[in-house]
Amino acid sequence: MNILGTSLRVCVGDLDHAVAVYERLTGTEALRFQRGGVKVAAVGCFFLMSGPEAELSILRKITATIAVTDVEEAVADLRAVGAEIIAGPVPTPIGRNLVARHPDGSIFEYVDRAAGAAP
Asked: Which structural domain range is residue 33 located in?
């Protein structure tokens, strides 16, 4: 699998305030979208997330988001090393994603920017 980079996941109480801070720190503009009840802003290498605690508590279990060239290729490589695919692949606003538990118990989200992603 070709890993392109990683994003850090940050749960925040006030998304608008956090976006202003992280836009200033990174010099980039936020891309905002919503997944379920959680509002997300991608700012540089950060995914800022705000929403109901029940949903955030699940998201906090994911160590980081890893950008890859192709999620399907990631599935094959992850299974080859004994990882468990616990969600996905599913379309997202920017591509496809999946969530996997590595053999050591760490949980990561993998995303690609596949053609035909949800707008």
From this structure: 3-112
